[in-house]
Amino acid sequence: MLLPIYLYGHPVLRAETEEITPDYPELQKLIADMWETMYNSEGVGLAAPQIGRSIRLIVLDGSVLAEDFPECKDSKMVLINPELDVIEDMDPVSRAEGCLSIPGLSENVKRVEHVRLNWLDENFEEHEKEFTGFLSRIIQHEYDHLEGEVYTDHIAPIRKQLIKSKLGNIAKGKVRCDYRTKAANK
């Protein structure tokens, strides 16, 4: 089932998220719905707060970007209760990022290129792995959602000021999307 994507300004995007257990109600259906919603919205990642759930759950698949970013090949993952460690062995890299919750905008965001992630998969099996390059960026972007952050929190103050009215319009639902959305004021 296609779920609405909650837009910038909605309180759920800033709410504290809670860890989940295997007995979370209809978890497998929720994961399937998140995949369907993410692919229908042409995203490469979707965090539970973006669909109105304050839980620590992410679906991610950057495979569509593998031609330009080989590290994204075969990157389809379900991340439950992830824990992220940033490895600061290189200078942060600035790249344009967009977000399904902030449609129509993209901004340059500086992020490190190397992270270590611990998580549970959809079967609650434990994993630990290091990620680099653009896949690391996708993971950090989605992880931010679990921490009540969005990518615009990481841009320069002058850029925030320049896009303030656009963000305000998104919060009011004054935006065109090819996918279902839920604005902050609705």
Instruction: Note the run of SSEs as H and E.
Output: EHEEEEEEEHHE
Distance between the termini: 21 Å
What does the main sheet amount to?
Answer: 5 strands, antiparallel
Task: Classify the beta-strand content into a percent band.
Answer: 25-35%
> Stretches where pLDDT falls below 50 for ≥5 residues?
none
Structural class: alpha+beta
Largest sheet strand order:
2-3-4-7-8
Percent helix: 10-25%
Radius of gyration: 16 Å
Q: How many strand elements? A: 9
User: Number of DSSP helices?
Assistant: 3
Give the oligomeric state: single chain
Categorize the overall geometry.
globular
The pLDDT mean sits at 95
Describe the structure.
There is one protein chain. The protein is of the alpha+beta class. The chain is 23% helix and 28% strand. It has three helices and nine strands, in the order βαβββββββααβ. The strands form three sheets. The chain has a five-stranded antiparallel sheet. The chain has a two-stranded parallel ribbon with strand order 1-9. Strands 5-6 form a two-stranded antiparallel sheet. A hairpin with a 2-residue loop joins strand 5 and strand 6. The relative contact order is 0.22.
How do the helices and strands line up, and which of them pair or pack?
Layout: E1 5-6, H1 27-40, E2 45-47, E3 57-60, E4 77-86, E5 93-99, E6 102-111, E7 114-120, E8 126-132, H2 133-146, H3 157-171, E9 181-182
Parallel strand pairs: 1-9
Antiparallel strand pairs: 2-3, 3-4, 4-7, 5-6, 7-8
